[in-house]
Amino acid sequence: MIELCKVEKSYPVGAGRYYVLRRIEMQVREGDFITIMGPSGAGKSTLLSIIGMLDGDWSGEYDFLDHPVHKLNMKQRAELNKKYIGFVFQQYHLLDGLTVAENLDIPLSYRNIKAADRQAIVADTLDRFHIVGKRDLFPSQLSGGQQQLVAVARAVIANPKLILADEPTGNLHSSQGKEIMELFKKLNEEGTTIIQVTHNESWAAYGHRIIKLVDGWITSQK
């Protein structure tokens, strides 16, 4: 499903370069549940952004579902992202001018789904995440934990092939965090591929494989 070959990300610093990622070699099969771990500044979020096609400034080769991402322009990459990927950001990235229900509708609007069907899917998702009472509220009216629940709901609502989750439970109570991880586990068992970044050892254990990043290098893949 995913193959990264000699992927690197760097910035010019003075006469040299500062490397965020170095020679990343990584394969992900459909149905994998992978955890990326490492200290702050190791390059975890950057790697997730590259896989999610949100960051286009890198070198190397990246194949996603037989598409050579490294040869695609930004518009083509954006189309792949919308069609196949759900992303849970550390900072939510909800649209402030839209209600909870409208935020959830966005991923569905990228697909050929009738408006009435989209409304039904949004209603089911609000119920599934116990946020029916929040449907007409704006993100600024929600607590951090509630915004994170909405962000997770938005990522999974359109049944993406790949879910990328950057500290998905960081702002949740432990019981809510466990609920989200159990949801990810269920989605994974149904065939969704998941790559998560976390510092939490308990949540990391949900993955089939742990990839460790240190100073931009992959130091182990178990």
Supply the key terms.
single chain, 10 strands, 7 helices, 222 residues, 6-stranded mixed beta sheet
Folded structure, characterized:
- The chain is α/β, with parallel strands linked by helices and 222 residues long.
- It has a single domain, classed as P-loop containing nucleotide triphosphate hydrolases (Rossmann fold, 3-Layer(aba) Sandwich), CATH 3.40.50.
- The protein is 34% helix and 28% strand.
- Strand 9 and strand 10 form a beta hairpin.
- Helix 3 crosses helix 4 and helix 3 packs parallel to helix 5.
- The chain is globular, with a radius of gyration of 18 Å.
**Spatial order of the strands in the main sheet?**
6-7-8-3-9-10
Q: How many helices?
A: 7
Classify the fold: give the CATH topology. Rossmann fold
Total count of domains: 1
How many strand elements?
Answer: 10
Radius of gyration: 18 Å
- pLDDT averaged residue by residue: 94
* CATH homologous superfamily (4th level) name: P-loop containing nucleotide triphosphate hydrolases
Which regions have little confidence, pLDDT < 50, spanning 5+ residues?
none
Major beta sheet, specifics? 6 strands, mixed
Structural class, judged by helices and strands?
Answer: alpha/beta
Write down the CATH class: Alpha Beta
Shape: globular
Q: Approximately what portion of the residues adopt beta-strand conformation?
A: 25-35%
Give the helices and strands as they follow along the chain.
Answer: EEEHEEHEHHHEHEHEE
